[in-house]
Amino acid sequence: MTHKSPLLIAVAALAACSLDPSNGNTEVGRPEGEGAFGSFVWSGGLQRTYEIFVPPTFDEGGTLPLLIFYHGRGSTGAASRNITRLDNIALRERLVVVYPNGFGTEPSWATGSGLTLADRLLVNDVLFTNTLIDHISETLPIDQNRVYVAGFSEGGMMTQTLACLLANRIAAVLTVGATPYPTFAQQCFPQRVLPMMLILGTEDPSYPRNGSSFTLSIRETVEFWALKLNCDLNPVVENLPDTEDDGTTVVRDTYNGCDLILYTIEGGGHTWPGSSVAFDPDLGLTSREINASEVIVEFMLRHTLR
C-alpha cells in the first residue's frame, strides 16, 4: 500500500524521544526509504531508521493498534514489507505497522546472544524499541494496550528478547523462523506472563529442529515458554488439513492455562509461510498451508496488555 495521507507525511517528521537521559539528541531526519514511509529516530545516541504503514482511515476516531516487525539478519524493513504483505492486512484491520531497520551496513539486532554485530557493538535494541513506541505515539493515536512485536529469523530472536525485557509494554509476541540462543533460558525473566505464538519449520537450516551450538531446539524453546507462562505442559495437538501439494503439513499445539500456540511446519524451511516471494532454494520449502501474516495478526488482535 502506498497511500500517502497528510499524517503519513507528518509521521515521517516525528520528533524523536530518546529514553537515554545522557543523550540530548532529539533531532528528526528527512524521510528516507519509500517516499513518505521512511524516517529515523535517535536512540542511545544512534541514528536508527524505520519504515511505517498508516491506514488511510487513521483519522476516523479511536486509537490504533501498533505492530513492530523485525526483519532477519542482513535484511531490511522494506524487504519485510514485501515478504509479509502485512500492509494489506493492516489496511483491512486499521493497524499501524512499523518496520525498523537493524543496526549496521549488514543490519543485525542486539538480541543479547553476543553473536551479532549489534551485540558486539553494545547496541541497545530494547531501548530502541521503547523509544520507537514513544516516538510513533507522539503523532499517531496509538493504543498503548495494543502494541505487538513480531519478527522473522534474527528478528524473531529479537522478539523473544523483548518478551523478556519489555513485557510491560507489549501485548503479544509473534515469532517466525527463529529459536533463542543457548544461554537465553538463564537470562530471561519476563516482567509478566504474556501471549505468544511461534511458527517454526522442521527443516529450517538456520534454526535446526533439534537445535545447534547457537540455537535452542524447537522443543526446548516451547517448553521454556510453557514453563514461564504457567501453561499446562501437555498441549492440545491438531493436525491441520493438508490443502496444498507443497511438501509441507502443519501441526498446531495449543497450550491450556495460558496463551501459547506453536505452529510446526513439517517439512518447512527458513521461509515465511504463505509468502509469494521466492526464497533461496537452499533455505528450504515455503509452506502454503497457512499464511503466517494472517495467522499472527488474528492471534495478536485477540489480546491487550490490560
Structure description:
This protein is of the alpha/beta class and 306 residues long. The protein has a single domain, classed as Rossmann fold (3-Layer(aba) Sandwich), CATH 3.40.50.1820. Helices cover 25% and strands 22% of the residues. The chain contains nine helices and ten strands. It has helices at 6-11, 77-84, 86-93, 117-120, 125-137, 154-165, 184-187, 218-228, 292-300; strands spanning 38-43, 46-53, 64-70, 96-100, 142-152, 172-176, 196-201, 236-239, 249-255, 260-266. It has a ten-stranded mixed sheet, sandwiched between helices. The chain is globular and about 45 Å long. The relative contact order is 0.12.
Compute the CA-based radius of gyration: 18 Å
Q: Mind telling me the CATH class?
A: Alpha Beta
Shape: globular
Largest sheet: 10 strands, mixed
Please name the defining characteristics of this protein.
306 residues; alpha/beta; Rossmann fold; ten-stranded mixed sheet; 9 helices; 10 strands; globular; disordered N terminus
Write a brief caption for the model:
The chain is of the alpha/beta class and 306 residues long.
Write the layout of secondary structure elements.
Elements: H1 6-11, E1 38-43, E2 46-53, E3 64-70, H2 77-84, H3 86-93, E4 96-100, H4 117-120, H5 125-137, E5 142-152, H6 154-165, E6 172-176, H7 184-187, E7 196-201, H8 218-228, E8 236-239, E9 249-255, E10 260-266, H9 292-300
Parallel strand pairs: 3-4, 3-5, 5-6, 6-7, 7-10
Antiparallel strand pairs: 1-2, 2-4, 8-9, 9-10
